[in-house]
Prior knowledge:
Elements: E1 9-12, E2 19-22, E3 27-31, H1 34-58, H2 60-65, H3 73-86
Antiparallel strand pairs: 1-2, 2-3
Amino acid sequence: xxxxxxxxxxxxxxxxxxxxxxxxxxxxxxxxxxxxxxxxxxxxxxxxxxxxxxxxxxxxxxxxxxxxxxxxxxxxxxxxxxxxxxxxxx
Length: 90
């Protein structure tokens, strides 16, 4: 599963009560709150950051600096679960 590439924008048109989230490729509309629209618009960036952090945490250089691998096991598991959820794998 691959998401629609960003950037995404949250937009509110003057004569409506709902928000729209749009990218160059698609539009999601009827989002009820500004907070939800802005969070959805930020989703591709948040996923990219989660993947980057997971890669950093699991890189050989980082693991070599730790006193024990268990030291960051919880962080690695949280990032792994978030990425899997976003990609529809969990």
